[in-house]
Amino acid sequence: MARDFDKTHKRIVESALDQFGRMGFRGTSIRGICREAGVTNGAFHAHFRSKEELFDQLVKPCVSGFDELYGSMAERYMDIASRGDIIRSLQQSLDSVGELIHFVFEHAAAFRLILQDSGGTRYEHFADDVAQAETKGMMAFMERCKPFLGRQRVLGI
Predict the structure, then answer these.
(1) Which of 10, 54, 91, 147 has the most CB atoms within 10 Å of its CB?
(2) What span, in angstroms and rounded, lies between the C-alpha atoms of 43 and 46?
(3) Residues 96-108: pLDDT tens digits?
(4) CB-based contacts of 17: which residues, under 8 Å, 6+ apart?
C-alpha cells in the first residue's frame, strides 16, 4: 500500500515539474497535473493540499539551501573584512560566488522553476530579493572596510 502511495506521489511530482516548466505556475492546473500523472483529483489531495503546497515542496529545499549558503558566504567575507584584509575578503567573496553557481547548477530544475515559472507564488520575486540582499551586503561591506582604506592605500594596495 505504501509503495502505491509513493508511486502515485512520484507521478504527481513528475507531472507537476513538467506542467510548471511548460506553462508556469499560473498556467498549470491541478486537473492538468492529475491528467498527465494518470491520477484523480482525490489522489492529488491525498498528497498535497493545493497546487501552491506542491510548488513549495518542489522548490523550498533549494531556496533554503541557497539562503543558508549565501548567509554563510557573507559571514565569511565580512569576518575577513572586519580584520582589515580587504583583498582577501574580496577573493573569498569571489570564491563563494563559485559555490553559489555550483549549487544553482546542482539544482537546475528547481531554480528554473523559481526564476522562470514562479509567477503567482511567493517565489516570484526571488531574483529581486537576492539582488536586494546583495546590494545591502555590499553596502555593509563598504562600511566595514572604511576604517582600513587609508591604511591600505599607504601600503600601496
Answers:
(1) 54
(2) 5
(3) 889 999 999 999 9
(4) 58, 109, 113
Indicate whether 54 belongs to any domain.
no
Judgement on whether residues 68 and 145 belong to the same structural domain of the protein: yes
Instruction: Report the alpha-carbon distance of residue 82 to residue 142 in Å, rounded.
Output: 11
pLDDT at residue 33 greater than cutoff 70: yes
Residue 1 burial (CB count, 10 A): 5
Beta carbons of 59 and 126 less than 8 angstroms apart: no
- Find where cell 549549487 sits: 103
The parent domain of residue 43 ranges over 1-48
Q: Read off the C-alpha cell for 110.
A: 528547481
| Grid cell digits, residue 33 | 497535473
The mean per-residue pLDDT over the stretch 1-9 comes to 86
Angle, helices 86-106 vs 126-154, to 10°: value is: 160
C-alpha cell at 133: 540582499
| pLDDT at residue 151, as a whole number | 56
Pull the grid cell for residue 13. 511530482
Instruction: Give the CATH number, domain containing residue 27.
Output: 1.10.10.60
